[in-house]
């Protein structure tokens, strides 16, 4: 379909004056949202776990034509949600060709476009702006100025055009005017200096601004959306009260409510392929990795105000798979199959994502991470083996049995595991692995051993591997959590 190229053609098209003149960006978002709801389409495809909490609140804000702010800890998909708003814009919208602020051909607000319309009338050229160019995002930092967001006077423009500095034609527009007839998003709003926030709420409500002392009327048509971490209100800055008062809706985000949602998010976001190599990640490995994040969010040694990002399990599972890939390359096994030991090998992807309290700092990030992994594996073991009797395995260790685990190939480790009374039988009863699949079977056996260790029914030391739990230590955890590199 040929798009109109002049205002005259525009008036006889579907983008006619009746439709376009009085329609604001918020009206556009509202109508397109209503159309999506009528068609039962997903509003934010790819956003998991918010269907009954955050999404309805955002829908209400958009239907109310509110500017809104998303409040939440790090790694809660705030920026992604804001970017998904682009899908609610029209596929394309007409603007005066060459205009820096995407002026409406029927109601221009910049002086240059008003003069152009006076000169050329209906022969004024128009261009069509795609929806992705109508979204402008800015990460707030303390050095952001009013000039960055609103604009500044340009002496060069004044000199070339022979204008006074107070003339609107000398303005170099900032990000906010360039987002006219679109969405302007500011991430980490409290990081903006207070005087810059003042400039924001003035143009939001009154539509005017002073640039270098010259008052300028600029009735922008912008949907303003923000994100912030609640801790930032005191840690790095705060949202000034007049600006907060002008934000229509304040919406709180959250971490996944359960392991199932968390696993789904990680499967969607993590890099789970390895070129041409065959990869098989057991479900219990995925759940154990997710459980680490859940344990960290409730651990007293981890700073609750900072939060534990969903990026932790995403990075961790990638590292887990990479360690399993490294093992496959050295052993020549046919597939990449992660084991519980690979989660411990992924500690570098965990420690950097934990903000620790004083007690945690005293313990050390690596030790805290090992504690979290052990607890997470223990809970995963309980989930799968709650009704499976493992007393025969414990008795074997109590009788002096020892088994050591390392990065050997599955066939070699399976020989060692066959000596442990009841271990393979328990793995078989769990239904987690086929008897003929030695790689997954070894992973299940490791889950059992590490789960019993987490429950303090057997012990594990760096030198000796898995052994019987000493009577005096049955009520406490061992200090050492790393695995031996020797094979029985």
A few lines on this structure:
The protein is of the alpha/beta class. The chain has helices at 7-11, 17-20, 25-38, 54-63, 78-84, 111-120, 146-149, 155-161, 175-178, 194-205, 232-235, 241-246, 259-269, 283-298, 311-331, 340-345, 348-351, 358-363, 365-385, 391-398, 410-418, 423-430, 438-454, and strands spanning 68-71, 92-96, 126-130, 135-139, 151-153, 171-173, 182-187, 208-211, 214-217, 222-228, 249-252, 458-461, 465-468. A hairpin with a 2-residue loop joins strand 8 (208-211) and strand 9.
What do these coordinates show?
- The chain has a 5-stranded parallel β-sheet with strand order 4-7-10-1-11. A two-stranded antiparallel sheet has the order 2-3. A two-stranded antiparallel sheet has the order 5-6.
- It is elongated and about 95 Å long.
- Helix 13 (about 260-270) crosses helix 15.
- The chain is built from 23 helices and 13 strands.
- The chain has helices at about 5-10, 15-20, 25-40, 55-65, 80-85, 110-120, 145-150, 155-160, 175-180, 195-205, 230-235, 240-245, 260-270, 285-300, 310-330, 340-345, 350, 360-365, 365-385, 390-400, 410-420, 425-430, 440-455; strands at about 70, 90-95, 125-130, 135-140, 150-155, 170-175, 180-185, 210, 215, 220-230, 250, 460, 465-470.
- The chain is α/β, with parallel strands linked by helices.
- The chain has 2 domains: about 5-250, P-loop containing nucleotide triphosphate hydrolases (Rossmann fold); about 260-475, no CATH class.
- About 40% of the residues are buried.
- The model is unreliable at about 470-488 (pLDDT under 50).
């Amino acid at each position: 379909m040929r798009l109109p190229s002049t205002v005259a053609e525009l008036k006889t098209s579907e983008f006619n004056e009746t439709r376009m003149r009085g329609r604001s960006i918020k009206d556009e978002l509202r109508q397109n949202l209503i159309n999506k709801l009528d068609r039962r389409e997903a509003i934010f495809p790819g956003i998991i776990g918010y269907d009954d909490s955050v999404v309805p609140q955002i829908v209400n804000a958009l239907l109310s034509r509110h500017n809104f702010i998303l409040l939440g800890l790090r790694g809660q998909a705030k920026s992604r949600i804001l970017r998904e708003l682009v899908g609610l814009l029209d596929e394309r919208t007409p603007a005066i060709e060459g205009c820096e602020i995407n002026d409406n051909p029927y109601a221009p607000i910049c002086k240059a476009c008003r003069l152009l319309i006076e000169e050329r009338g209906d022969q004024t050229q128009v261009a069509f702006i795609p929806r992705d160019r109508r979204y402008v995002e800015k990460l707030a930092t303390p050095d952001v100025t009013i000039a960055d967001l609103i604009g500044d006077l340009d002496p060069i423009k004044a000199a070339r055009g022979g204008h006074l500095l107070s003339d609107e034609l000398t303005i170099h527009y900032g990000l906010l005017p360039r987002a006219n007839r679109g969405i302007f998003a500011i991430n980490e709003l409290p990081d903006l200096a207070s005087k810059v926030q003042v400039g924001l709420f003035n143009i939001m409500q009154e539509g005017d601004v002073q640039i270098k002392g010259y008052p300028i009327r600029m009735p922008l048509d912008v949907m303003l959306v923000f994100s912030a971490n609640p801790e930032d209100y005191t840690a790095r800055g705060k949202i000034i009260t007049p600006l907060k008062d002008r934000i229509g809706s304040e919406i709180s985000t959250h971490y996944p409510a359960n392991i199932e949602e968390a696993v789904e998010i990680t499967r969607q976001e993590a890099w789970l392929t390895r070129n041409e190599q065959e990869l098989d990640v057991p479900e219990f490995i995925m759940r154990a990795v997710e459980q680490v994040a859940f344990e960290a969010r409730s651990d007293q040694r981890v700073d609750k105000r900072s939060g534990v990002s969903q990026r932790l399990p995403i990075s961790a599972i990638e590292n887990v798979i990479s360690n399993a890939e490294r093992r496959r390359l050295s052993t020549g096994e046919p597939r990449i199959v992660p084991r519980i030991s690979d989660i411990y090998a992924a500690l570098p992807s965990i420690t950097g994502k934990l903000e620790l309290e004083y007690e945690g700092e005293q313990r050390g990030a690596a030790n805290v991470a090992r504690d979290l992994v052990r607890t997470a594996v223990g809970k995963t073991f309980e989930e799968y083996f709650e009704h499976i009797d493992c007393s025969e395995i414990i008795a074997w260790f109590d009788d002096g049995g020892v088994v050591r685990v390392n990065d050997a190939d599955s066939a070699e480790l399976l020989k060692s595991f066959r000596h442990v009374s009841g271990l393979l039988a328990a793995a078989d009863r769990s239904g987690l692995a086929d008897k003929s699949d030695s790689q997954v079977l070894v992973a299940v056996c490791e889950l059992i051993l590490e789960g019993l260790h987490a429950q303090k029914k057997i012990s594990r030391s760096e030198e000796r591997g898995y052994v019987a739990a000493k009577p005096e230590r049955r009520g406490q955890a061992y200090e050492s959590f790393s695995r031996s590199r020797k094979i029985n």
